[in-house]
Each structure stands twice: as structure tokens, then as C-alpha cells.
Write a structure and sequence with these properties.
By secondary structure, the protein is of the alpha/beta class. Helices cover 46% and strands 16% of the residues. Helix 1 links the parallel strand 1 and strand 2. Helix 1 packs across helix 11 and helix 5 crosses helix 7.
């Protein structure tokens, strides 16, 4: 058993979709989470800026001697290639596992990708999908407003404004017949009930945070790094701004109160 924690980071609250999966499927693992709430969103930044932010995030988590680091951020996983390549610990991003799951799920070889501008512009999901199956058509749509909806807790299934925004983004790719859609930003699974209702039951949604956690689970088990099942995992949360706001919305997203576990990590 290796009691060192799993380090998870994101630009803000979105990565809590991955944390939620860890809490459910790896309850014996300890977590250190960092949300860069001061600099969210990452998806509208230049590649150079995203690389710089990612390096800061990784360096912070490495102080905790993490046994695995997860970029629970579609933008970082797609763009910050240099920062990722320097990680010494086992690493999991969200692009590869989600792409693999989407290829396995599609029935008509038409996959949609909802993500940030930076992720769509990178073509990362398209490259990973077509490595597995070159016959798949990938239709990407940049959905920058959805990050703000989650960061402001506009995730209720009955929220008319959120539904209309999502409908506007998805209509073009739905009209082209996609039967599988990757939620390519970890913020988006928090909106999954609305997205599913817009798409209909015939469209399969791929939660990239969940898929990343399943890959992390496999890595930990195969490498002998997993904790014993009897161990009760703990969680620490760090943000770069607005701890109270983070705690309040995290309660809605995770379904638990983490206010006494959230600390401020200042960015110089």
C-alpha cells in the first residue's frame, strides 16, 4: 500500500467532477486538489500561458509527494504538452481515456466534442480518436460560456438560460448526426443532465473526468500503488482565490460540505 495522495488540478471547480468519481470509485485514496480560481478560465488563454499555469499547478502538487498526478482539465491535457512531459510521477490526463471511451461507444462513427476554445483549436481529441479509428468523423464545438455557468452554479436541470445556451451550442453537431458526445472540459459533466435532455436518450455522453479516474484506478492497481480497501481516504482542497465561494459551489457539485477542508494557496 502506498499512502501518498493523488494530486488533482484544474482551472477552477470543473475538476471536482473527477474528484466526485474518486470519492465514489476510489474511496480509499487520499486526494489533494488544486483549483486555480484566481486565473479561471484557462480555455481562452494562449498556449504559452496555459503551459505556464500548468507548470505552476504541477509544482504545487509535487510538494505533497503525490503518487499520481491528474490534470482534471481538458485544456491542460490538450495544450500543455511540455509541462506534462516534465512530470516525474505517473500522470493521467482526460483526453486519451475519453477518446478511447467515445470510440468504443459510437455506433455510427460520428463523435462530437464539447470543449473550450483552446482544446478544440488544439485538435487533441480528434488526433486521439483517429489514432484508434481513422474512420470516425469528429465534430468539435467550442463552448466557452459553459465554464462560467458551472463556476456560478447555474447547473439546475430546469434552468432555462443554461438549457438555451447549451441548445445553441449543440444544435449544429446534433443536426450532423453525432451519436456520442465527449464532455471535453471537466466543468461540463456538472451540466450533464441538461446536456442529455437537449441531446435526447439516443446520444451517449462521455464524462472525461470519470474516464480519467478509471484509468488512474487501473494504473494504481497494476503498479502496486493502490491503498488497501480498508483505508478511509481523506481530501484536502486548495484554491488560489475565493475559498468561501469555492466551498459553497463545491457543496452543490459534490453533495458534501468541504468548507473546513479548503485552504488558500496564493499565486505570486
Amino acid at each position: 500500500m502506498d499512502k501518498r495522495p493523488i494530486g488533482i488540478f484544474d482551472s477552477g471547480l470543473g475538476g471536482l467532477s473527477a474528484v466526485k468519481a474518486v470519492l465514489k470509485y476510489l474511496p480509499e485514496e487520499d486526494i489533494v486538489y488544486f483549483g486555480d480560481t484566481q486565473r479561471v478560465p484557462y480555455g481562452s488563454r494562449s498556449a504559452e500561458t496555459i503551459e505556464s499555469y500548468a507548470k505552476d499547478d504541477i509544482a504545487f502538487l509535487e510538494k505533497f509527494d503525490c503518487k499520481l498526478i491528474m490534470a482534471a482539465c481538458g485544456t491542460v491535457s490538450s495544450v500543455a504538452v511540455n509541462a506534462i512531459s516534465e512530470i516525474k510521477e505517473p500522470f493521467v490526463g482526460v483526453v486519451k481515456p475519453a477518446a478511447k471511451a467515445a470510440v468504443n461507444a459510437t455506433r455510427n462513427n460520428k463523435i462530437g466534442v464539447m470543449a473550450t476554445w483552446a482544446t478544440i483549436n488544439s485538435g487533441a481529441y480528434t488526433k486521439e480518436i483517429q489514432k484508434t479509428n481513422s474512420d470516425v468523423e469528429v465534430l468539435g464545438v467550442s463552448c466557452p460560456v459553459l465554464v462560467s455557468l458551472v463556476e456560478n452554479d447555474w447547473i439546475d436541470e430546469d434552468d432555462y438560460i443554461s438549457r438555451e445556451i447549451i441548445k445553441r451550442y449543440l444544435t449544429p453537431i446534433l443536426e450532423q448526426g453525432v451519436d456520442t458526445i465527449i464532455l471535453g472540459c471537466t466543468h461540463f459533466p456538472h451540466l450533464a443532465p441538461i446536456i442529455q435532455s437537449v441531446c435526447g436518450d439516443n446520444v451517449t455522453l462521455i464524462d472525461n473526468g470519470f474516464e480519467a479516474v478509471m484509468e488512474a484506478k487501473e494504473i494504481l492497481e497494476k503498479s502496486g500503488l493502490a491503498n488497501d480497501k480498508e483505508h478511509k481516504g481523506t481530501a484536502q482542497y486548495f484554491v488560489s482565490d475565493k475559498t468561501q465561494n469555492f466551498s459553497m459551489i463545491a457543496k452543490s457539485l459534490l453533495g458534501i460540505d468541504i468548507s473546513n477542508k479548503v485552504s488558500l494557496k496564493e499565486i505570486k
